[in-house]
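Reopening this ticket.

The earlier resolution said the output was attached, but the attachment link was broken on my side. Pasting everything inline this time so it's all in one place.
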Amino acid sequence: MAKIFISKYLTPNDNWALHLQEEEHVITGVSCIETQTIFVQEVPTADWTFFSSAQGVKHFLEQQTVTSKYIGVMGEGTQKALQTFGYQADFIGQSSDPVLVGQALKEHLKPNQKILFPASEISKRSIASQLTEQEIIHLPTYRTIPLSISIDAQDIYIFTSPSNVDGFLISQILPDAYYIAYGPTTGNYLRQKGVKNISTLEQVSSDLLLRTIKEKISG
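Inline output:
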């Protein structure tokens, strides 16, 4: 039996967790951050709206509507969040690496188009920085606040973002264990904090996450 921590709250759609729980592994899902909406008074006109996270979708669409002709999303998780508001993406990234997603997105864009990025106020703008032939509009729609949490020692730690790492570190250290990172940005951040045994998900999906966890469990 393995004890597994993930820095997000579990949902009924987390099939990987249900599968592991059936095998009597213990899953602890707790977010190490909270997000607060930033009020958007007016949405700038744009050709594309690009959402890099489910949080970006939530905090934007709970107060505004998409007025652009096209919508792009970072990946399948963001697309699912978008669908809950009745929208369908015209572009869906197929990697957790923002560099690769940015390269793929560029193939769908025309020079001088306006691209709106509703995102966190501390967004790293990894995709937007690659779009040198387009006009970028960064629209802060939420702020991220690290939370102090305390959990027992685990066999596997799964982190979904650098901000969640910061929240975890408020009141505890990163112990010697197995780690799984959602994408290279989070993986590199864990390495900066001294973590060595990291598997980085190239694409965030339930199947890949389950397979990676099972590999860790089996050693």
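Reporter confirms the inline version is readable. The radius of gyration is 18 Å. The domain at 3-32+147-218 is CATH 3.40.50.10090 (Rossmann fold).
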